[in-house]
Amino acid sequence: MAVIHLNTENFQKALESSKVVVVDLWAEWCGPCRSMIPIVDKLGDEYEGKALIAKVNVDDEPEISAQYAVRSIPTFLFFKDGQVVDKHVGTLAESKFKEKIDSLL
Question: Is 9 designated active site?
Answer without folding.
Answer: no
